[in-house]
Amino acid sequence: MLNLSRRSFLSIGAFGTLSMPQLLQAQNENGTQHKAVINIFLAGGPPHQDMWDIKQDAPSEIRGEFKPISTNVAGIQIGECFPKIASMFDKFTAIRSVVGCKGSHDGYQCMSGWGREEVASGSQKYPAVGSVASKVLGFVDRSVPVAIGLAEPTQHKQWSEVGSAGYLGHSHKAFQPNNEMMEDLILKIKRDRFNSRKNLLDTLSGLNTVLNNTDTFTEEAFGVLTSSKLLKALDLSKEDPKIRERYGDGKPFKYQYDGAPTVNEHLLVARRLVEAGARSVTLSYGRWDSHGDNFTLVRDHGGKLDQCVSALVEDLEQRGMLDDVTVVVWGEFGRTPKINKSSGRDHWPQVSCALLAGGGFRHGQTIGATNKLGEHATDRPVHMQEICATLYRGLGIDTTSQTIVDNTGRPNYLLEHLEPLEELI
How far apart are CA 79 and CA 69, in angstroms? Predict the structure, then answer.
């Protein structure tokens, strides 16, 4: 394949590169139900003991500034920065004992369950959940990509990870509708001229050799480019202003530095994309690398996250979508129990946290526990791959039996920890 930029191979006049068809290539048969996952990555490592696992009885150098607040589920408390989530916690599950974190600033593991350095047979990377959905389940609507990544480009590139297709190949990679791609999705030539170019493409006798018999996927590329469905889903001007106000916009974007901004509207776009036919939408929310001034950062990021995540779950429920859409909120690792001299918390891969909602699962609970200081899991350690197995379960993919053959001909299980969280089922 030619070495071209994403912009050049997505543009209408660059069909000879075949990259748009390859980007959209996926299994032809649709799934029997439209299940979906919205994966909200908290880049930088969110502090578990300041969010869902408040350590009120710990010494002040561990406990920090935040107090617990009661939720609408008897006996469950979470951090004071999340009052909206607390008021509807019967729709959520907080996992307080996430283990298996790799300890590197990278979204790869939250997208796939695997560390970036871990490879399958033939030194091929493992695919992200969305890419597997593309391969196994295929399109809901051929004019909307199966997997879509909304992550803003970041200076630290691993924080804008939307999920690698790994050994599944480029055709199952997540589609990223950034500004350049949006321009490319708008047809700037008249439809009759566009159709003429398509006819010319169809008549090139040698094209099948280059396409490797992927004519169907060329049609899918044309489908995306000529359909308004994806563009409409991405256009928030079409949304009810009251609903937009409920989500908020996440501004001002504080503490961004080399990471992602707190774009609350991405969660609303994610809901709209799922409605349009996407099965997997990933995004990167904020920069949680709080080596200094941890508590001011969490007040800022936490309050905004509380607004948009509660709005998303409420919105999905009101639209009758919540049982079909699994929402996960998590980061690459936790943070140190002991507060440092800069009022910050440092990297702590020993234990982390996650928040789940939707998917038809049993919520209104917490899973696991850490010791008094929040140093390590003391009850029900939950491996990151168990959470990914649960995301697959929400999509209708059984990780205990599903295998995919890589391009060396070897079948691979999707994960090593095959079972989803039994507490949710």
Answer: 6
